[in-house]
Design a protein that fits this description.
heterodimer, A: mainly alpha, B: mainly alpha, two-stranded antiparallel ribbon, 4 strands, 72% helix, transmembrane (chain A), transmembrane helix (chain A), membrane (chain A), Na+/H+ antiporter subunit C (chain A), CPA3_antiporter_subunitC (chain A)
C-alpha cells in the first residue's frame, strides 16, 4: 500500500508543479490545489499508514494511528482553503483591473523619477 | 564624575539649539556652548588622574552576548583628542555665531555640530571597539549633515554624499577589521586588546585585519587614493570645514592608527602600507594645493598633505616618529583651524575666496591678516612657529629611515613635500594679504567683528607659544599622549627645542625654504607643465564608479526580478530539488524495514482513478470548467484515502472543503475567461514537465522512504492524556482545541485575515477600472430558469436537516469525528446551497447573521475562552471539563474547549460566507440585465405577467 500512496503523492505534486508553472492565473490556482493535496497527504503519511485504527479512544482498541499528523493536516487543509480563496480573489481582482489573467509578465511600469546626476 | 557623560552630553544637548533659537541667535550659541564647556570641565577634572598615568574607565553592559558594551576610558591619547575636539569645538561655536548669516537656520546648524561633536568624542574615548564603530559611523552621518548644511547648493549635496559614501563605506571595512581584531585578541575592549600585541601580530589573520582597519582609517583621513572627498566637502560652511578638517573628522583615521599603534605597528606590512600611502598622500596633496586658486581648496589639499605626513610618521613604527606625529597633530590642529577661519573671514569680508581677485588685505584688515600670516608661516614651517618644530623633527626621523634598502628615498621625498608646502603657503599668503591694495573686491574688506577674529587669535597664541617654548608649553602633553600611543612607560630621549645644531634636518629645512621660494618664482612654467600632463579627475572617476554601481544594481534587479510568477516558482522548485537531491546523494540508501500494508482491490482502483484524473487535468487544463470538475474528483479520491487510512476527521474536512472550494472557483470562473489559451512552445513545456517530474519523483521517493521505516512518535502522550486530561476521546479534536489550542487560535486569526483581505479586494473593485470592465462584461447565456424550482424546494427542505447535521457534528466533535472546523464547513455549505438555489439577494435578506460579526465573534469567543483560564491561575488556553447530568438526555460532558471550538466554528462559517457573498456581489455587477431577485420571481411572473414585462424580470429575451 505504501508504494501506492507514495506514487500518488508524486503524481499529485508533479501535476501541481507543472500547473503552477503555467502563465495564466487559473491553472496556477488549480496547481496550488494539487500541490496542497500532495503535500497534505505527504504530511499525513509521516505518521505512517495504518488501517482501522482511528485515533478515537475506545476501551476495546489496542492500537491507534498517530493523531498528531492528522491534527496538523486538518489545520493545513483549512488554511490552504483560506489561502486558495484569497488567491482566487486576487486573481479575479487582477483580471478585472488589467483585463489580463497572465502571471508571466509584469504590470505596466510607471515612468521613473528623473535621478539627480552627479555632475560637476 | 562619570566620563561616560563626555560623549553623551553633547548628543543629548543637541536638542536644545533649535529650541533656543526662538530666543535669539546669541542665546542659541550659548545653549550650544554650555554642554561643550561642561564636557571640557569634566575633562579638566579628569586631567590630574590622566597625567598621573592612570586610566579612568567606565562601562555599562549593552549586548554582552556579542561583546558590545558601552565602555569608555580616558588615557593620555583619548584625553588629548577629546580636549582638541571640545576646545576647538568651542571656538567654532563662537565663530559660527558671527559667521552664519541671518537667513541660515542656526538652530539646525548647532544641532548637527553637537551631534558631530558627541560622536567624535565618542570615537576617541570608546573602550569597546564595536562601540567605536558605532560612533565612527555617527561621525560619518553627522558630517554628512554638516557638509550638506546648505541644502540648496548642489555642490553641498554632492560633496556631502561623496563624503558619506567614502567614509561610511570605509566604516564598513573598519567594522570587519575590528571584528577580526576582536576575534584574534579574544576581547572587544581596547584596554584588553592593547595588552596582546604579540598574539595579534603573530596571527595568520593579521594581514587581512590590518588592511581592513587601514581601509577605514585611510578613507576617513583622506589618504591617497581616497583623498578626493575632502576638497569636495569644502562646499560646507567655513566653520564646518575648520572643525572637520583641522581637529576632528579627518583626524579620526590618524587617531585610530595611533590608538592601535601598539598592536599593529612595527611589522613590515604596516611600515610598507602606512608610510608609503602617507608619503604619496603628502606629495600629491601638496602638489595639487600649489595650483589651486580657491583659498579653501588650497587649505583642503594642504590638509590632505599634512594628514599624509602624520600617517607616514605613524607608519615608521618607531616611538620617536609616533611622538613627532602627536606633536604635529597638535600643531596642525592649531594653525589649520586658524587658517580655515581666516579664509572664512576673507570670504565674509571681501566676498570672494579666489586668490586671483585678492591681495593687499594686510592694509585693509590688519588684525586678521596678521593672524592669518602667522598661521600660514607655521604651515610653511618658518622658524619660531610650531609648524617649524614638528616639520623639522619629521625630517630628522625620515633622515635615518631607509626605504627599500635605499637611505635617500624617504628624506628626498619628504624634503620635496616640505618644499611644496613652503611654496603653497607662501603663494596663499602673498596673493591674499600682501601686495598692493586693489579696487575691485566684490565687497569692501575691513576687519571683522571681534567674534570672528578672536577664535583665530586664541589659536594663534599656541602657534607662537609652542614655537618659542616647545618643551614648556607642549612637552607634558606630547609626552603623556605619546606614552599612551606607544603603550610603554618610558620614551627614548628626545628634546622639544628650537635649536638642535647643524643637523641633516636643518639642511633639509633650509633646502625646503629655498626650494619653495624657487618654485614660486617658476610658478607659471610649472603650471603649464601641470596642465600638459594628464590629471585624472577623481570626482569624475568617483561619479563613474557610482553610476556603474547603480547600473549594475539595476541590471541585477532587472535580471532577477522578471515579474514572471512561473519563473519565480521554477527557481524556487529547482533550488529545492537541488538541495534535496544533494541530500539524497550524500545519504545512505538502505531499504526500509517496516512491513508494508497489503494492497487491496478498491485501493488500487482509487489509486488508478486518482492518477488518471491528475494526468487528465494536466493535459486538459485549457478547458477550465472540465479542469475544475476533475479537480474535485481528485479531492474526493484524497478524502477516500483518508478514510482508508484511519483518518475520519481528515476525510470529513477534505470533503467539505472540496465542496466549498468548487463553488468558490465556479463563481470566480464565471468572471474569468473560460479557457486557457495555448501559450508557450513545446520546449518550454517539456522543461516544465522535467521540473515537475523531478519534484514529484523526489516527493514520492521521500514519502516512500519515510513510510517504510519505523519511528517513535511523541503522540503517546496525546493518546494517553486525551481522555483524562482533555476530556475527549477524539484525540485529533482534543489536540486541535486543547493540546495545541494556541496553534488553532492563530489559525482562525489567519482565516479571519484572509476573509477580510478578500472583502477588501472585492469591495474596492466596484470602483475604477475594475468596475468599468465589470460593467462591459458580456454575460454568457444563462439557463432559462435562474432559480429552478426543484432545486429551491430541495435545498429549503434540506436546510434544517443540514443545520442539524452541523450541530450534531459540532457537539460530538470532542469524542467522535467532527468538531468546529467540519461543523462550520457543513453549515456554510447548507447556507451556500440556499444562495445557489434561491439567489444571493434572497438569502442575504433572510440571513440575519452578518459575516463580519461572525468572524469577530468567533475570534473573541476563542480568545475569551483562552483568557478564562487565567482567572483560575492557569496558563492561557488551559481547558477544563466536567460531566453534567440532565434529565431525559442523561449524563454529558461540558468542556471549556467546546466554547473554543465554537469560536472556530463561527470563524469558518464567517470566512466562507464573506468570501462567497463578496464574489456574488461582484457578479451581480457584471450582469447587465436586472438580477432576478429570487425564486419568487417565478410566481411573480405568472401572477403579474401583464404588469411587468417578463423579460425584465426573468432576465431573458421574450
Amino acid at each position: 500500500m505504501e508504494i501506492l500512496v507514495a506514487s500518488a503523492i508524486g503524481v499529485l505534486s508533479a501535476a501541481g508543479i507543472y500547473l503552477i508553472l503555467r502563465g495564466r492565473s487559473f491553472p496556477v490556482i488549480i496547481g496550488m490545489t494539487f500541490l496542497s493535496y500532495g503535500v497534505n497527504v505527504f504530511l499525513f503519511a509521516m505518521g505512517r499508514l495504518s488501517v482501522d485504527r482511528p485515533p478515537i479512544i475506545t476501551s476495546d482498541a489496542a492500537e491507534y494511528t498517530d493523531p498528531l499528523p492528522q491534527a496538523l493536516v486538518l489545520t493545513a487543509i483549512v488554511i490552504s482553503f483560506g489561502m486558495t480563496a484569497l488567491i482566487v480573489v486576487l486573481a479575479l481582482r487582477g483580471f478585472l483591473e488589467t483585463g489580463s489573467d497572465r502571471v508571466d509578465e509584469g504590470i505596466p511600469k510607471l515612468p521613473e523619477p528623473a535621478e539627480e546626476r552627479l555632475t560637476s | 564624575m562619570n566620563i561616560i557623560l563626555l560623549p553623551i552630553l553633547p548628543l543629548l544637548a543637541a536638542i536644545f539649539p533649535p529650541l533656543a533659537i526662538r530666543s535669539g541667535r546669541t542665546l542659541c550659541a550659548v545653549a550650544t556652548a554650555i554642554p561643550t564647556v561642561a564636557a571640557l570641565l569634566m575633562l579638566a577634572a579628569a586631567a590630574p588622574a590622566v597625567y598621573r598615568g592612570e586610566i579612568t574607565r567606565a562601562a555599562y553592559e549593552w549586548l554582552p552576548q556579542f561583546g558590545l558594551s558601552f565602555s569608555v576610558f580616558l588615557d593620555g591619547l583619548s584625553f588629548f583628542f577629546a580636549a582638541l575636539i571640545l576646545g576647538i569645538g568651542l571656538l567654532i561655536i563662537i565663530y559660527a555665531r558671527f559667521y552664519l548669516s541671518q537667513k541660515d537656520p542656526m538652530g539646525r546648524f548647532y544641532t548637527y555640530l553637537l551631534l558631530f561633536q558627541g560622536a567624535m568624542v565618542g570615537v576617541v574615548v570608546s573602550d569597546n571597539i564595536l562601540l567605536l564603530v558605532v560612533f565612527w559611523e555617527l561621525t560619518s552621518l553627522s558630517s554628512f549633515l554638516l557638509i550638506g548644511y546648505w541644502r540648496d547648493l548642489p555642490e553641498g549635496r554632492q560633496g556631502a554624499r561623496m563624503a558619506l559614501v567614502v567614509t561610511g563605506g570605509g566604516g564598513l571595512l573598519l567594522l570587519a577589521g575590528l571584528l577580526l581584531l576582536g576575534q584574534i585578541a579574544g576581547s572587544y575592549e581596547l584596554t584588553e586588546i592593547l595588552q596582546r600585541g604579540d598574539v595579534i601580530k603573530g596571527s595568520p589573520l593579521y594581514l587581512p585585519m590590518l588592511l581592513l582597519i587601514l581601509g577605514g582609517a585611510f578613507t576617513k583621513s583622506a589618504q591617497f587614493p581616497f583623498h578626493f572627498w575632502l576638497p569636495h566637502a569644502m562646499a560646507a560652511p567655513t566653520p564646518v570645514s575648520a572643525y572637520l578638517h583641522s581637529a576632528t573628522m579627518v583626524k579620526a583615521g590618524v587617531f585610530l592608527m595611533a590608538r592601535l599603534w601598539p598592536v599593529l605597528a612595527g611589522t613590515e606590512a604596516w611600515f610598507l602600507t602606512v608610510s608609503t600611502v602617507g608619503l604619496i598622500t603628502m606629495l600629491v596633496g601638496a602638489w595639487i594645493a600649489l595650483f589651486k586658486a580657491d583659498l579653501k581648496a588650497i587649505l583642503a589639499y594642504s590638509t590632505v598633505s599634512h594628514l599624509g605626513l602624520m600617517t607616514m610618521l605613524l607608519g615608521l613604527g618607531t616611538p620617536m616618529a609616533a611622538l613627532v606625529a602627536v606633536f604635529h597633530i597638535l600643531n596642525h590642529a592649531t594653525f589649520k583651524a586658524a587658517l580655515f577661519m581666516s579664509a572664512g573671514i576673507v570670504d565674509h569680508e571681501a566676498g570672494t575666496r579666489d586668490i586671483r581677485s585678492l591681495g593687499g588685505l594686510l592694509h585693509l584688515m590688519p588684525i586678521s591678516a596678521t593672524l592669518a600670516l602667522i598661521a600660514a608661516g607655521s604651515m610653511a614651517g618658518l622658524p619660531l612657529l610650531n609648524g617649524f618644530l614638528s616639520k623639522e623633527m619629521m625630517l630628522e626621523e625620515v633622515a635615518h629611515t631607509p626605504y627599500a634598502g635605499t637611505p635617500w628615498i624617504m628624506p628626498t621625498l619628504a624634503t620635496v613635500g616640505a618644499l611644496l608646502s613652503v611654496a603653497y603657503s607662501a603663494r596663499l599668503a602673498i596673493a591674499t594679504y600682501l601686495g598692493p591694495v586693489r579696487s575691485d573686491y566684490p565687497h569692501h574688506p575691513h576687519d571683522p567683528p571681534l567674534g570672528l577674529w578672536l577664535p583665530v587669535a586664541i589659536l594663534v597664541v599656541p602657534v607662537i607659544a609652542i614655537g618659542l617654548l616647545p618643551a614648556l608649553i607642549a612637552g607634558p602633553v606630547v609626552e603623556r599622549t605619546t606614552l599612551a600611543v606607544v603603550g610603554s612607560r618610558t620614551l627614548p630621549s628626545y628634546s622639544l627645542a628650537l635649536w638642535h645644531g647643524f643637523t641633516p634636518a636643518l639642511m633639509m629645512s633650509v633646502t625646503a625654504l629655498i626650494g619653495g621660494a624657487a618654485i614660486l618664482m617658476a610658478f607659471k612654467p610649472l603650471d603649464r607643465l601641470r596642465l600638459a600632463t594628464p590629471r585624472p579627475e577623481a570626482k569624475r572617476i568617483f561619479d563613474q564608479m557610482l553610476g556603474n554601481a547603480t547600473r549594475g544594481a539595476k541590471f541585477l534587479v532587472a535580471a532577477l526580478h522578471t515579474e514572471s510568477l512561473p519563473r519565480y516558482f521554477a527557481t524556487i522548485i529547482v533550488a529545492i530539488i537541488i538541495v534535496g537531491g544533494t541530500g539524497f546523494m550524500t545519504g545512505s540508501h538502505a531499504p526500509g524495514t517496516r512491513t508494508s500494508l497489503p494492497i487491496n482491490g478498491p485501493a488500487l482502483v482509487i489509486w488508478a482513478a486518482l492518477v488518471a484524473t491528475s494526468l487528465a487535468v494536466v493535459v486538459l487544463h485549457p478547458n477550465r470548467l472540465l479542469t475544475l470538475i476533475l479537480t474535485s474528483i481528485v479531492g474526493l479520491g484524497v478524502s477516500i484515502a483518508f478514510i482508508q487510512f484511519s483518518a475520519p476527521d481528515l476525510a470529513l474536512t477534505q470533503i467539505s472543503v472540496e465542496v466549498v472550494m468548487t463553488i468558490l472557483l465556479l463563481l470566480a470562473l464565471n468572471l474569468l475567461p473560460r479557457t486557457t489559451p495555448p501559450e508557450t512552445g513545446w520546449l518550454h513545456r517539456a522543461w516544465d514537465g522535467v521540473i515537475a517530474c523531478a519534484g514529484g519523483v523526489g516527493l514520492a521517493g521521500l514519502a516512500y522512504a519515510v513510510m517504510t521505516r519505523d519511528f517513535r512518535s511523541i503522540s503517546e502522550y496525546h493518546l494517553a492524556q486525551s481522555k483524562p486530561g482533555g476530556g475527549g476521546t477524539n484525540v485529533v479534536n482534543v489536540i486541535l482545541v486543547d493540546f495545541r489550542g494556541f496553534d488553532t487560535f492563530g489559525e482562525i486569526i489567519v482565516l479571519c485575515i484572509a476573509a477580510l483581505a478578500i472583502y477588501a479586494l472585492l469591495d474596492s473593485s466596484l470602483k475604477g477600472a475594475a468596475a468599468q470592465r465589470l460593467a462591459s462584461m458580456h454575460q454568457n447565456e444563462e439557463s432559462a430558469d435562474a432559480h429552478p424550482l426543484m432545486l429551491v424546494v430541495v435545498t429549503r427542505v434540506l436546510l434544517p436537516l443540514a443545520l442539524t447535521v452541523g450541530a450534531f457534528i459540532f457537539l460530538r466533535g470532542h469524542n467522535q469525528p467532527g468538531g468546529g472546523f467540519i461543523a462550520g464547513l457543513v453549515v456554510a455549505i447548507a447556507l451556500l446551497m440556499q444562495a445557489m438555489a434561491s439567489g444571493y439577494v434572497w438569502t442575504a435578506e433572510r440571513l440575519r447573521l452578518n459575516a463580519h460579526t461572525m468572524l469577530g465573534l468567533g475570534v473573541l469567543l476563542a480568545g475569551l475562552t483562552g483568557l478564562g483560564s487565567l482567572l483560575f491561575g492557569r496558563p492561557f488556553l488551559t481547558s477544563t471539563f466536567r460531566y453534567v447530568h440532565l434529565p431525559f438526555i442523561g449524563e454529558f460532558e461540558v468542556a471549556s474547549a467546546m466554547a473554543f471550538d465554537a469560536g472556530v466554528f463561527f470563524v469558518v462559517v464567517g470566512t466562507v460566507l464573506l468570501s462567497l457573498a463578496q464574489i456574488a456581489r461582484v457578479q451581480a455587477r457584471a450582469e447587465r440585465k436586472p438580477v432576478p431577485a429570487g425564486p419568487s420571481d417565478i410566481l411573480l411572473q405568472r401572477r403579474t405577467a401583464d404588469v411587468a414585462p417578463p423579460a425584465a424580470v426573468l432576465g431573458k429575451e421574450p
